[in-house]
């Protein structure tokens, strides 16, 4: 009879343990609570990995004056919603987003490097005349939605999905779709 009681008790313990083990979701979702001990200071959160990294800002104040002037001239009705300073390859770049979704990248001096207007035409003043002429002649009605200065010349995206690469003289080098 003792064995029967022991068996019943073991079965109850196993059952309760299994039920408690299946209810881990509530325990996993709760953050662990640190036990306060007299004389022991709680740990502070770890510092960011790169203390020199600049945090994104949502104002044009983070930009060089040249970049701010460019934005005011080319996008007078837009406001800066996001600025990120990037220096991954040793060169400083400013990546900005405007409230209309336009993205503009500037170099350290504040000169534009890339303008992406997503679905609408970039300002005509940003496209070299010979490239604009080529596009209007050969791709009538296709707006230039991105202009990117590259070491070889210009990378141009059209609203129809084509990517055109031009050399520094404005001569077409390649077309990608």
Question: Characteristics of this structure?
Answer:
177 residues; alpha+beta; Inhibitor of vertebrate lysozyme, Ivy; eight-stranded antiparallel β-sheet; 26% helix
Strand adjacency order, main sheet: 1-2-3-4-5-6-7-8
Provide the succession of SSEs.
HHHEEEEHEEEE
Continuous helix count: 4
Over all CA atoms, what is the radius of gyration?
A: 30 Å
Average pLDDT works out at 77
CATH class of the domain at 53-116: Alpha Beta
Fraction of residues in helices? Answer: 25-40%
Distance between the termini: 83 Å
Label the CATH architecture of the domain at 53-116. 3-Layer(aba) Sandwich
Total strand count, please?
Answer: 8
Query: What overall form do the CA principal axes indicate?
Result: globular
Q: CATH topology of the domain at 53-116, what is it called?
A: Inhibitor of vertebrate lysozyme, Ivy
**Uncertain runs:** 1-56
Most strands sheet: 8 strands, antiparallel
Estimate the strand proportion.
25-35%
Main structural class: alpha+beta
Q: Would you write up a description of this structure?
A:
Strands 1-2-3-4-5-6-7-8 form an 8-stranded antiparallel sheet, covered by helices on one side. The termini are far apart. The longest helix is centred in the first third of the chain and has 20 residues, at 2-21. A hairpin with a 6-residue loop joins β1 (80-86) and β2 (93-98). With 177 residues, the chain is an alpha+beta fold. It has 4 helices and 8 strands. The model is unreliable at 1-56 (pLDDT under 50). Among the domains are: 53-116, Inhibitor of vertebrate lysozyme, Ivy; 120-177, Inhibitor of vertebrate lysozyme, Ivy (3-Layer(aba) Sandwich).
